[in-house]
Amino acid sequence: xxxxxxxxxxxxxxxxxxxxxxxxxxxxxxxxxxxxxxxxxxxxxxxxxxxxxxxxxxxxxxxxxxxxxxxxxxxxxxxxxxxxxxxxxxxxxxxxxxxxxxxxxxxxxxxxxxxxxxxxxxxxxxxxxxxxxxxxxxxxxxxxxxxxxxxxxxxxxxxxxxxxxxxxxxxxxxxxxxxxxxxxxxxxxxxxxxxxxxxxxxxxxxxxxxxxxxxxxxxxxxxxxxxxxxxxxxxxxxxxxxxxxxxxxxxxxxxxxxxxxxxxxxxxxxxxxxxxxxxxxxxxxxxxxxxxxxxxxxxxxxxxxxxxxxxxxxxxxxxxxxx
Length: 323
Ligand code: COA
Hints:
It contains 9 helices and 13 strands. It is of the alpha/beta class. β4, α4 and β5 form a beta-alpha-beta unit. α3 packs across α4 and α6 crosses α7. The longest helix has 23 residues. It is globular and about 55 Å long. Bound molecules: coenzyme A (COA). The site of coenzyme A has 20 residues, from α2 and α6. Coenzyme A binds next to α2 and α6.
């Protein structure tokens, strides 16, 4: 059975927070942030939520795909910052779209969430017969960002991206690879608030904000990125030279640059918006894909690689033949 990605969408919060704005909040500089990360500014949700951004991104993807919302029979929302545990973000997005009947689930695979979601959607379409899947990646990382830690808060932003997968005659998803490695050194963590019950007694507060060992995450990211790209290319039997574009997780310009150099792939092939949006976790890859698609740079038949890595530690990639 063949599956194609037939539409993309994205949604951004209105508020822009620049590096200059952060200079007024902490001991940092635009120059340091830009040279160490490639980020100039990020969007921060004020009124927006994971569900509202996710719904807007989904609407844009549905319109781009030229389908009706009720054709969707599977909704996956990748998020690490859900608005609510019950009924979850995907069921709320389904309701906002006016879709009466569709299986809906939230998925947490950190910054690789949308690639994991693509893999899960493809698996469910192949085994359970779903025809049209909506995958949304939506995160409001500003909620769990430690705004007093200048080593991490400068990296993150809020956004949502979405895409539609559909059963098709022609094969559009040529290869998918998802993988993981235990985070034995706790290099990237964030806890729920301490949850007390009448039976537990008082609990010590948890670390409710993102903690990251930047150096260790950096070296994991480059190695994982290279491994997953090679795995997907190998599975499809396609040489890297044939790739038209790579849509990487927008964690840090330097990670992308190191990967490009080590793989000997021209940097121009890597789509980047990290300067405008920073790292938006689940939204990162689908927003970048949407921007690339809408830029008109992709032609039918082009080979596009999506690749991500993140907490967990998770990593993965998907090789697409463009619709
Ligand atoms: N502004 C100014 N100085 C800062 C700063 C900031 N925002 N953040 C850190 N510094 C300082 C440090 O305190 C340190 O000072 P010191 O030498 O006096 O101790 C110096 O800059 C160098 O810090 P370092 O942590 O070595 O910088 P780095 O080049 O490793 O960059 C990251 C830090 C976080 C940008 C980088 O490690 C990174 O991007 N890692 C991967 C993160 C990632 O991708 N995470 C998400 C994965 S999904």
